[in-house]
Amino acid sequence: METTTLFAIPQMPLIQPGDDLAAVIVDRLHAAGERLQPGDILVIAQKVVSKAEGRLVRLSEVQVTDEARALAAVVDKDPRVVQVILDDSRDVIRSRRGLLVVEQKAGWICANAGVDRSNVAGGDGEVVALLPEDPDGSAARIRQRLAELTGVAPAVLINDSHGRPWRLGTVGVCIGCAGLPPLWNQRGLHDLFGYELVSSEECIADELAAAASLLMGQSSEGRPVVIIRGYRPPSHLPPAPARNIQRPAQMDAFR
Questions:
Q1: What is the gyration radius of the CA atoms in the chain, in angstroms?
Q2: pLDDT tens, 118-130?
Q3: Which residue among 44, 52, 125, 242 is the one 20 to 30 A from 190 at the CA level?
């Protein structure tokens, strides 16, 4: 019987800019009596990756433009935060009171470009975290560092919490991927009754990220790294970056 298990790495410390995140993960794994195994998949919360990479902005140092002030009045947000969002965005997709959806510089369509005050040191809301500048690159570097430290190169996913059209609530999604095929195009396969699939495409990376998010939590849980053990992606699919998930603008019905 095939089984897949998930467990959060316990007692992860608060990550600071410049920390060797991979080394911290290995240390906490060893302290818990665990080791990386071939085939493991690490799902890492975006926030700790951003912290380690120094993707933090102190709001007192932000220079607010007229564009940001005008948009802040529309969405009813701190003009400094709006400026940070604009600085890390390619385009504003939707804006109304309480909502600002943009295309973030790495290509992700999300609220506030992923800019977030929660779980950032200081507790006064005066420091915000941005998404990693290159999440796929971040995942690849962490994977390589884990291989150097342990001899095992697990797949690495970086996840973030995104909202979805037509549905309430956020879900963990993958924004960085290394060592795993993020998508499985199943067109041409057949169902139980012989019907040929013509439009089925499974987002493996998002499904794994969402599963890990159940253990990570959204507030004070302190479980930013989850190991998925036992899942085997289709062997014929090559690893690819998470940016392959992004729907081209011309195919996007919501723009």
A1: 19
A2: 777 665 669 999 9
A3: 242
